[in-house]
Amino acid sequence: MSATQILFLIAAYFAVLILISYFTGKEDSNDAFFKANKSAPWYLVAFGMIGASLSGVTFISVPGAVETKQFGYLQVVFGYFFGYLVIAYVLLPIYYKLNLTSIYTYLKDRFGNVSYKTGSIAFLISRVVGASFRLFLVAKVLQLLVFDQYGIPFTITVVITILLIWLYTFKGGIKTIIFTDTLQTLFMLISVVITIIFLANALDLNGISEIYQNVKQDTMSKVFFFDDVNDAQYFIKSFFAGMFITITMTGLDQDMMQKNLTCKNLKEAQKNMVSFSVVLIFVNILFLVLGLLLTQYAHQHGITATKDDLFPTIAMLPEIGVLTSAFFLLGLIAAAYSSADSALTSLTTSFCIDIIELDKKPKDIQKKIRKRTHIFISFLLVVVIILFDAIFKDVSVIWELFKAAGYTYGPLLGLFAFGIFTKQQLKDNYVWIIAIVAPILSYLLNEHSVDLLNGYQIGFEILIINGLLTFLGLVLIRRKQH
Fold first, then answer.
1. 418-434, pLDDT tens digit by residue?
2. What pLDDT was estimated at residue 400?
3. What's the CA gap between 17 and 239, in Å, rounded?
4. Helix, strand, or coil here: 478?
5. CB atoms < 10 A from the CB of 265, how many?
6. In b/e form, how buried is each residue of 225-261, taking b as 16+ CB within 10 angstroms?
7. Number of neighbours of residue 91 by Cβ within 10 angstroms
8. What is the pTM of this model?
9. How far apart are CA 169 and CA 345, in angstroms?
10. What is the DSSP string of 103-129?
11. Cα separation, 236 vs 11, whole angstroms
12. Greater pLDDT, 304 or 395
């Protein structure tokens, strides 16, 4: 595809999203923006959450990592499933019972204002970093495929990327996103299936049975790793890391839970979560199969692209055909924006509700404050993405994303675990200290684990370690019972 064709495709795609936002954003109220008036159908939320959970990072990095990581990522995905069950039957009942708009209000009711603000700030940092990683990856692909050919600098690409999100979310907020996420998830899944069909034909694989046999026989399809406990991909480490990544990055994350809190009641929210968790396993298998076929195709044709460059490089080859290339771009953009748009909305929600306490402001200026906050968060994302461009080169972004999540979400995991599984109170004024010290100790342990732990390499379980250190720190500042 030419750069002009790609630009036309992007323009048409966003025209559809803006049209959806026009109809869903007619009620420009804060209640519609934050909670969709609690009227969202659970099945739409579940389907849309697939795209929001996967994002452009999964779309690019999971297939690109198959050559070096094999199908080991599936161990993490199995952990995800059990994490979603914890969310459905432990966290969601709490959130619905308290009728929360921001889930961090729970910390205020349970411990006090400092804990509440600490949890909110931990989320803001976590989600800004996570959303920026995802958008950074997509902006880099668009830069390579389109904007470099017009001599447009990366900074302008990033500004355009964020501006497009702002355009279709600034009025309807979460109400708009529930519908746009559904459309975007559909595009993403169609893109993966069409690319797999093309690659199967190119590799002379006829039908699902031959694709299955090809995958089964390839050493890259190894799923379980039990041989070396020191290996970062060791099964127990990967499984429990996946479980806790889900509990924190979904269950303790305003972005993901804001969608669930738009359902009419707890039962519908639980149906959404359970059905979504099952479908997500099969969708991730599709991405891994895609990665294996991409790698085989690259080896067969002497293509040297690896990691995050593999899928974009092959998808845009002339012999792939315009249709496959077009659906790749639609899938990539859909995957990226389905997570980024909800991130922008949830960051706006958390900042308004948790940090500046919008409900305490005069009613006649609340909407104006929300809209200004939306612009401020958009600008913040631009700045962080540009910083990432200066820091991260030649890395698999999904692994960097999970590594960052281990440090930023750990305090949230420790705080909520202490609140749910104990009945003790805390010396609230000291909570923020624990939330800073625990990630620092986790980082130091991670950096020196090979020396300190007889060759043991810490992987995604850094999140569990961080949460445990936070929990133990909170034990030290608990109030004595009288």
1. 999 999 999 999 999 99
2. 67
3. 37
4. strand
5. 10
6. beeeeebbbbbebbbbbbbbbbbbbbbbbbbbbbbbb
7. 21
8. 0.75
9. 7
10. TTHHHHHHT-HHHHHHHHHHHHHHHHH
11. 45
12. 304
